[in-house]
Design a protein that fits this description.
The protein is α/β, with parallel strands linked by helices and about 160 residues long. About 35% of the residues lie in helices and about 20% in strands. It has 5 helices and 7 strands. The strands form 2 sheets. The protein has a 5-stranded parallel β-sheet, with helices on both faces. It has a two-stranded antiparallel ribbon with strand order 4-5. The longest helix has 12 residues. The protein is globular and about 40 Å long. The C terminus is likely disordered.
């Protein structure tokens, strides 16, 4: 029986299926939603531990979905991670301002995604405080270096 539940809200069925297959190796139940409305319903009534949210969805942006989740007592405490193909630095900045728990750019590193999910669902004592790659202090709510995978001079993806 899975011990954690992740909801992925993404209109790309291929992304949903690949994420599902990868996370099931960690004994995580994965719920899938192809529309914002379906995602909000699943979040409200299936109580996932974490939500992976695409930014570009039909009828509503991922940021609007996030705001709806945070305005609902049933879903306001669920951590949300953005998964997106939109790679400008302002996305990360805006996500941090809103309180999102991370941004992963498509195609993303599944190892890092699995670590992030483990971090958000494990005890605080298991968390690291410095980036293993560059030694920078990690922000408590994100726990990954925002510079990893980014060109440190231009803040754009490599």
């Amino acid at each position: 029986m899975p011990n954690k539940r992740v909801l992925i809200i993404d209109d790309d069925p291929n992304i949903c299926e690949v994420v599902k297959e990868v996370l099931e190796f960690d004994n995580i139940e994965v719920l899938k939603a192809a529309t914002p409305e379906e995602g909000l319903f699943e979040a409200r009534y299936k109580s996932p531990d974490i939500i992976l949210l695409d930014l570009f969805l039909p009828n509503m942006s991922g940021f609007d979905v996030y705001k709806s989740l945070k305005n609902d007592d049933r879903t306001k405490d669920i951590p949300v991670i953005i998964i997106t193909g939109h790679t400008d630095a302002s996305t990360v900045t805006y996500a941090q301002e809103l309180g999102l728990k991370g941004v992963f750019y498509k195609p993303f590193n599944f190892g890092q995604l699995r670590k992030k999910i483990k971090y958000l669902t494990d005890d605080i004592d298991d968390r690291q405080s410095k980036c293993p790659h560059c030694g920078r202090e990690l922000e408590d709510s994100w726990q990954f270096c925002p510079y990893d995978g980014l060109n440190r001079n231009s803040k754009t993806r490599k």
